[in-house]
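User: I'm writing a tutorial on reading structure tokens. Could you give me a worked example: one chain, its sequence, then its tokens, then a sentence or two explaining what the tokens reveal?
Assistant: Sure. Here is the example chain.
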Amino acid sequence: MNYYQDLLEIYKMIPMALFAYNRSENLQRTLDCLKSNKINLLYIFSDGPKNEIDEEKIKEVRKMLDKIDWVKTEKFYQEKNIGLSESVIFGVNKVFEKHDAIICVEDDICVANGFYEYMKACLGKYRDNPKIAGVTGLRYPIKEKSFANCDYDIFFYPRFSSWGWGTWKKVWQEYTFNTDILVRKIEKVKCKIIESGADMMLMYNSLRTDKLADSWAVPCGLNMIINNQYFVYPTRNMIENTGMTEGTHVRSEKPAYELKWSEPIGLNKIRFPEQVILNEKIKKGMNDFFANNKSLTKFKSHLKFLLNKFRKVKQKIFRSKPDPSKYSTCDNSQKVPCQMAAYNLALDNYLKKEESCLDVGFGQGYGLKILSQKTKKLTGIEVDKRAVKRALKIFKPQNIDILRYDGYNIPFRDNTFDLVTCIDVIEHVEDYDKLLKEMLRVSKKGVFLSTPNRRSEYTNPDGTPKNYWHLREWSFEEFDHILKTHVQNVDWNFIDWSFEDPFKFNTKISKDTLSLVPFICKCNIVLKNDI
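And here are its predicted structure tokens:
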């Protein structure tokens, strides 16, 4: 038995995992390619529908999947939509309950003949090498001259590839998908990000600021950077992507580049290098590709446009006092993590089950979703017309009342609500004392507030906030003084954050305090969880 046959014997039952959603047209060709590869075992993970339109499409997809009779299958069908990231993580973990290695494709990935055998050979070859995180059948369309002096059929590059890939259980189990932990670890080796391609820093920043939704591949790439690992790439491409104009993270009329199959690598002819060393010419070719990628160029152009627009707006604003009525949370769909942390603190410590609550200045509305976990009656009020219109569509079916108000006069009787919440709003309000009186008037227990701590890095030399929509920001001492002109009892909380650590809740101010989070109580005694 020769070397390759020995590897195949060891990895004889290595399974393929297929992740499908609602694209039956793409799926059929993917299935045809897998059938031609004569795979041994196929795990199928089908995500559930987001809406009624999806339901019909997914029914068609599952009919196709149920007709597979050319390979043994294990199927996992989700009743509800869990998203691509959770679907992939769930699927890989499920396969690793029984197997030590996996090969994955999504429903828009078509693989060339020989892909399956190539992947098994590579997974066998590098299964005990800690420098290797996984294998892919994708070779990006980099310039052919990059391979002029390459004597092998594979090369190494420090970048994860999610289009036709494979890895081992022991590698996967070391990875974390917790963004806070990843950011903390990456900040220590941030200089290495550029080695994975010029676009990797953009993706990292998008993930770090919660702009990159439902991503699992970027965290895999970041884990590789942290662990100083490489992916095995073929010198001849075996992947085509039929969904490059649509998908979770790729949507455009025309794809940024094309992928075409190359002549397949003969299994018994794969030339492996003896050592894991970067080929400098291929590395340069890959670096040049990611630096000159049309999608990256387009992103940079759009970013430049936004920065110029921001400068013009900023100049206009600083010529006169900011007008709070022109601020709209609908201009930015990004969730603010410290605001979500504040809402959860209110939910856990100051809101009892089946109580009523008023959220003042609900913005994008994600705080209403958090508070609704306990409330019997929940109302949101907002000055922003666009935010109110958006929230009416989202929350009316959930029996959450949505109203527009003038920013000061709250249209309810005294003591209407058990609790009033007001998260990162008061810094936008001109007459904050008037708003505080109104919120206390309509509450039975008191008002839960959150506002930015005036930290030096977020403050201009003249003392004004760098966030130009904030009319002011306070220190703990200043805000405590303001609140105690309205009530005697203030229960103080603080949300702390630094580049090295995730959010922490404290009862004392510190150098890392990001948000001041007081509960101003109409009672004489404040007892958390028993108000």
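What the tokens reveal: DSSP finds 16 helices and 18 strands in the chain. The first strand starts at residue 16 and ends at 20.
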